[in-house]
Amino acid sequence: MKRGMYLLAALFMVLGLARAMTPAGTAITNQASASYIDSAGQSRTTTSNLVTTIVQQVYAFTITPNGSETNPGQIRSNLPGGQVLFQYVVTNNGNGTDTINLSTAQGTGDNFDLQNVRIYLDANCNGNVDAGEAQVTNVTLAMGAQACVIVAATIPTTAQNGQYGNLNLTGSSVGSNNTLTDTDNWARATATTAAALTAFKSASPSGNVAPGATVTYTISGANTGGSAAYGVSVTVDNQTKTGILVEDTIPSGLTVSQMPTGSAGAGTVRYVYYNGTSWVTLTSSLLPLTGDGTKKIGMLIEGTGAFFPQGAQYSLSFTAQVPQNAQAGTGYANSAVVRFNDGTQNRDVTTNTTNNTVGASYDVKVGPYGYPEGSATGTYTVGAYTITRSGDAQSVAQVYSGTNVIFRHTLKNTGNTQDSFTLSLTGAPSGWACQLVADDLTTPINGPVGPAAAGGTYDFALKCAIPANYTGGPVNLTVTATSVGDSSKKDTTTDEVTSILSGYAVDLAARGYSGDGNANNDNPASQSANPGQTVYFPLEVYNAGANPDVYNLTATVPQGWSVVFYPDANCDGVPDGAPIANTNLLNPGQKQCVVAAVTVPAQTAPGNNPVSFTATSTTVSGVSDTVSSQVAVNLVAQVTLDPDRSGTVTSPGTIVYTHTLLNNSNAAAYCDISGNGGAHGWTYQYSTDGTSWYASLADVYVAPNGRTATLYVRVTVPAGEPVGRVDVNTVRANCDVTTGTPDNTYEATDTATETTTVVGGELRLTKSVDKTSAFPGDTLTYTIVAENIGTGNLTKVIVSDPIPAYTSFVSVSATATGFSGTYTILYSTDGSTWSPTAPTSAPTGGSVYVAVDTNGDNSITDQDIMPPGARITITLTVQVQ
Fold this sequence. Notes:
The chain is an all-beta fold. It folds into five domains: 11-33 and 769-880, Immunoglobulin-like, CATH 2.60.40; 195-352, Immunoglobulin-like (Sandwich); 364-482, Immunoglobulins (Immunoglobulin-like, Sandwich), CATH 2.60.40; 506-633, Sandwich (Immunoglobulin-like); 651-758, Immunoglobulin-like (Sandwich), CATH 2.60.40.10. The strands form 15 sheets. Strands 18, 19, 22, 23, 25, 28 and 29 form a seven-stranded antiparallel beta sheet that branches. A seven-stranded mixed beta sheet has the order 32-33-34-41-40-36-38, with no helix packed on it. The two termini are 24 Å apart. It comes from Thermus brockianus.
């Protein structure tokens, strides 16, 4: 076994994994949540800070076929002075991209050294050196990728018949500083004056194939030896035939439906088929043939005596079809054998091995609960509302302000391989607090969900709190599911809260030009942006009609882009307040300034992209106006500020929120941090170390390429605040992304929202992880602390923590302090069935729940009390896949 394979095998024994490693650079994120009833009798939820661990790279590779100098993995023959070709496959078995250095070594226990040794990249993996294929000294391979290489060498002209020379292809991993090597790949070249047939194998297409595709295999070669070749005895149709036999085992699962084609420079061609017992003449009546590991297809070149002269060539081709339901990663390795007699003895020549792999096909569907692929019917009830499903949409006829409306959804992996998915939401009106949560209706979703197997499903929900003063509609909320494996694969579903308004005429124009009757100046100026950046278009909406009206704001942008509209109270082109989906009520002749904030997705290619904005009357849907512009996308500059936070606090009291500022740019980011909270006289302060606090932060440094900085926001609530009062703070990171000195030019920006509620008692959640970076197979230990830091009792306190994507559950335990009398710690994996015994398993994407039973009924109800000062500490251990 090679040194590289020792490392890989040892790693897999430790992990106990039967699946691929998590790719290097993957961010594993985790956030805990809790539900409880406060001292005012109100149901509350709160979330912990978000913790992140980055998966590190593991290096491993192989070179095949293996062989020692005394027992080489491949043997090739030719005349003295002739060339021989040795075929190899280099495979990257690590979890990230690596470069493999390649070199050769001559043998010491042989008769001669090979000459003119060269290494070629066999781009089409046909085992031969084709015109234009380059010499290489290394290959760079992505995770799981392979490369075919050929070592070409010349037998010395002085070599005698039967003498041989040995040659070894060795490799070393650049990523491991060349400490990881593969050195047991010996091959042998034999000098001969007898007949010598070459044999090469090609597959078209090479590499990845799609389910249902066809692969054409071609076996070819020539007599490059010193004399004519003889045939071998082969029994066909129960009769003895003599000839050169070219045979190929049909790869298991592939189906041959057409007769093969072939030719030979001498002799007569007969197509034959081995049915697992004997050879028979192949005719179209025997087709189709499906490979099962025993069936072979072949060509017998019939002739007597030394009938196949020097230089004579041969070729055999046949086509096989991949099953329509083939799963991604299914491999079809294939090599052929040519049997002949060189005048002294029978010889077998094995071709190079072709490798085809069924490529991953990613796709996703998302729809109403139970109907991810649409065609939904029926109703279901969540809380006080009945949800009606229809097609790929669902709606609720009427809701009331100040309540929650919840739409449940089902996502389905419709690809042919395991995949994870990101979920996003658009369309939430100004003031709505919407959140995507797990199907327990509490646990927030951060980062990708899954992974889900091909055909697997995942249930989740959209939970929206409707403000007490909100009226209007209809409200259309669009949920988008996007494949992590292929971000171009996505699907949407629509949730509607129904309502009716009326409207008349509208003139939409660039700021300062509405209502002037001149359509030539209506279009706003074009903007430029980096991938992941938000740009602003100042607009005016003018009521050109005779009656008051409200106008919905929509946009048409390239696929994957998003648009959020903001009010612009002082018409200075800068957003003021929370996002809006429509204007205020405008009287005839009245105008309102708005800003369209267009967000360009990460990794968007540079170039000009058209965008348009439309104002549509909510009274008469056919009344609308559209303006157009464009966004010129620059190179990468992207930061994200996560997560959105919510918490509770007493009056007086203090709460500290933690956010992670992630720089996905390819240059350092210098970020200015500020917020817009404090509507009720509350104090907001910011810090990068949790010790020194400021009204805002300037030039917070974040290193490039996925590095992070931690931001702390301290909220101080004065005395006298009423229970139930809510303040929302939007924390904004404005970042100058540069390789030089920051000049306060913001190339990237992002926000996170903090919603703080005054309660009689307060549950504080904090979370930590023992590693900020880890390798596949490492364990991550999360510590979650829930404590009542208020002055009143809390009841029915349930703390939940999800099992993050790319990890597997190992264990969970908990302790409690500060509780009165006799109590028992209870565990659950569904939030409703409780046990004093900690669970031994939990699915990835699922959650574990912990609570304290204080009244001895072995369940968690509003009779279970968490007094002031009490604390629950949970330790969750997972393993990186």
